Amino acid sequence: MSADEVSGTSGRDRPVVTGIREAILSGEFVPNQRLVEADLSERFAASRASVRAALLELTNEGLIERVQNRGARVRAVPLEEAIEISEVRMVVEGLCAAKAAHRVTEAESGELQDIGESMRQAVSSGDVLGYSRLNERLHRRIREISGQRTAATVLERLRAQNVRHQFRLAMHPGRSAVSLPEHLAIIDAIRANDADAAERAARAHLRSVIQTLPEAAQNPAERGPAR
């Protein structure tokens, strides 16, 4: 059974699902924003049935919630849930880092090293948004190198649910200087083919995220890309 069959969506609904998800991830659609079927139908040149199917799938993913007599809106994830999501990420990201350490090729090792160097330069120049993009690129590449498709699917869904807290964390003063050595430790362990060290480093990074989330939640930023 395909993912579309499980979710109830069809291939023609997929662009609508992807479009709404990306709008949430980019910060274009913000927490508690109403999602009007007619507007979405016009925006994505899709039928109302396709829009409803897409909203249902994204509700199942935890990105959207249905409010009685008010339709659909982007779900606002409370801090307590954001912490729980990060605790799950800590375990799964550790798994992916360990798998990546076993599977990484010489070319991939060089790519990770380049990402780490670019992250150093972004922190040195104060390029917070650039660092944020590199951060996401690093995590995505580790998932891809790991070859753990199930874990990658879980992490992508969790990242989407937590996008607003992730952005606030990225904007938190001094956060990039703290997370840089954590990311470099993950890179070094993967490049050294040390699975245990890679898992420990990934877990340490997410533990740091969890500790910082309550402070970052005070950040008033409401728009922008994910961490």
From TrEMBL:
It comes from the Bacteria. This is DNA-binding GntR family transcriptional regulator. Keywords: DNA-binding, Transcription, Transcription regulation. The keyword Transcription regulation applies. GO terms for molecular function: DNA binding; DNA-binding transcription factor activity. SUPFAM superfamilies: GntR ligand-binding domain-like, Winged helix' DNA-binding domain. SMART domains: FCD, HTH_GNTR. InterPro entries: GntR_C (IPR011711), TF_FadR/GntR_C (IPR008920), Tscrpt_reg_HTH_GntR (IPR000524), WH-like_DNA-bd_sf (IPR036388), WH_DNA-bd_sf (IPR036390). Residues 10-77 form the HTH gntR-type domain. The lineage of its organism: Bacteria, Bacillati, Actinomycetota, Actinomycetes, Streptosporangiales. It comes from Actinoallomurus bryophytorum. Transmembrane segments: none annotated.
